[in-house]
């Protein structure tokens, strides 16, 4: 008959496995943070550069992410998840124009922080995947716009997809202006809202569609 091991005999192995898992989780978290930092400075940063930013070897990074695209995808999920937690705290009640302004201001802060990561994602990932990753954020903007239309505050003569596209384009253009040093990140939110609010507002005499 074989001799069965006691729980006490298995304890060192279980502790070692637990430590290895904890190390792997810490490494993965460090890689994602490093990816966001490195790509913010340079959207074309390589896996080796991201590994150096994390203080890890390139093969360690590849042990967690098989390709650069997989790493960028995971970094986007992490970044958007943190952003979702922030945007969920933005009050969207009250007059639609004010709610829209608050949402855009908070969204701009997140866009500005992750613009390099987004640029890398747009280059590395399929456009369908980028849209999928932003689905929750887009749904929040859509909800405010739809409420504004229902309450007569926002125009209804333009398709919803065009209003959303316009919002994205203006915010991305602001990010480019900040990178070029033409505006400050602090001024950008005000400029974005100054452009978008008149563009979406229901104006007297403007033909509306039901």
From TrEMBL:
UniProt cross-references to InterPro entries, sorted A to Z: Homeodomain-like_sf, HTH-type_TetR-like_transc_reg, HTH_TetR, Tet_transcr_reg_TetR-rel_C_sf
Record flagged with keyword Transport: no
Pfam families in UniProt: TetR_N
Superkingdom classification of source: Bacteria
DNA-binding region: 46-65
Single GO MF descriptor: DNA-binding transcription factor activity
Transmembrane stretches, start-end: none
Keyword Transcription regulation carried by entry: yes
Residues of the HTH tetR-type domain: 25-83
Keywords: DNA-binding, Transcription, Transcription regulation
Protein name, entry field: TetR family transcriptional regulator
Lineage: Bacteria, Bacillati, Actinomycetota, Actinomycetes, Micrococcales
């Amino acid at each position: 008959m074989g001799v069965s091991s006691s729980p006490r005999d298995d304890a060192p192995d279980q502790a070692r496995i637990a430590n290895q898992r904890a190390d792997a989780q810490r490494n993965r978290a460090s890689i994602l943070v490093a990816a966001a930092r490195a790509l913010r400075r340079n959207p074309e940063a390589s896996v080796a550069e991201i590994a150096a930013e994390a203080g890890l070897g390139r093969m360690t990074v590849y042990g967690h992410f098989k390709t650069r695209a997989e790493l960028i995808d995971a970094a986007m999920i992490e970044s958007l998840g943190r952003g979702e937690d922030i945007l969920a705290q933005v009050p969207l009640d009250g007059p639609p124009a004010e709610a829209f302004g608050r949402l855009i201001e908070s969204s701009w802060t997140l866009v500005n922080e992750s613009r390099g990561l987004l640029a890398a994602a747009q280059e590395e990932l399929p456009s369908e995947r980028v849209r999928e990753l932003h689905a929750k954020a887009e749904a929040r903007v859509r909800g405010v716009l739809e409420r504004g239309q229902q309450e007569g505050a926002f125009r209804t003569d333009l398709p919803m997809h065009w209003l959303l596209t316009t919002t994205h384009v203006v915010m991305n253009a602001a990010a480019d202006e900040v990178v070029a040093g033409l505006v400050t990140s602090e001024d950008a939110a005000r400029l974005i809202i100054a452009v978008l609010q008149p563009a979406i507002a229901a104006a007297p005499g403007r033909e509306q569609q039901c």
